[in-house]
Specification:
This protein is mostly helical and about 180 residues long. Helix content is about 75%, strand content about 0%. The protein folds into 2 domains: about 1-90, RNA polymerase sigma factor, region 2, helix turn helix motif (Rna Polymerase Sigma Factor, Chain: A); about 110-180, Winged helix-like DNA-binding domain superfamily/Winged helix DNA-binding domain (Arc Repressor Mutant, subunit A, Orthogonal Bundle), CATH 1.10.10.10. It has helices at about 5-15, 20-40, 45-65, 70-90, 110-125, 130-140, 145-155, 155-175.
């Protein structure tokens, strides 16, 4: 979306224009859901937290505590904070093993190994700084380009590249040393 068009949409949303709010939701909800899902690995929880992101957005609009520069970066920051709060409160719920869907053509040992690798990666990403975490998630899990990540978090492309480099080095160290 062009910056002027996005600014007009956000201005309408500040005036509680329902069509503008619906358009914002349609535009960003799947991305925010994917971001949360990749962090938690739980579809139901990701749906709940995505809804909470947009509720907080509406509350912030009402109280004038909304975004300052990058709207999408602000939404991702809300999502990131909700994920951090979720882990901080210890409400981590695992799906019981008997409820895991098992693909017909896949060996259960392969499924378990992949699940453990995903959990290790999630835990390692969780040890990164907040900005590194967001950059890695947007870049590698969501498939954003460096310029898209930069716009989303309100930083320059150079800063994104630097954050990405440091995050990957940290992940190598964490996973290599199993500091989980």
């Amino acid at each position: 979306m062009q910056p002027n068009a996005e600014a007009a949409l956000l201005s309408r949303a500040r005036e509680y224009d329902q069509a503008a709010i619906a358009e914002i939701y349609d535009r960003y909800s799947l991305r925010i859901y994917n971001y949360i899902y990749h962090r938690l690995g739980n579809a139901h929880l990701a749906e709940d937290l995505t809804a909470t992101v947009f509720l907080r957005m509406l509350e912030a609009i009402r109280s004038s505590r909304a975004w300052e520069s990058s709207f999408s970066g602000w939404l991702y920051r809300i999502a990131h904070n909700l994920v951090v709060d979720y882990f901080r409160t210890g409400h981590q719920e695992e799906l019981p093993l008997e409820e895991w869907p098992v693909p017909v053509n896949e060996h259960p040992a392969d499924i378990a190994e992949r699940s453990m690798a995903q959990q290790r990666l999630r835990a390692a990403i969780g040890q990164l700084t907040g900005e590194q975490n967001v950059v890695i998630t947007l870049k590698f899990l969501e498939g954003f380009s460096n310029s898209e990540v930069a716009r989303a978090i309100g930083k320059s492309e150079g800063a994104v590249k630097s954050l990405q480099f440091r995050a990957l080095a940290s992940l190598r160290r964490i996973i290599g040393g199993e500091e989980l």
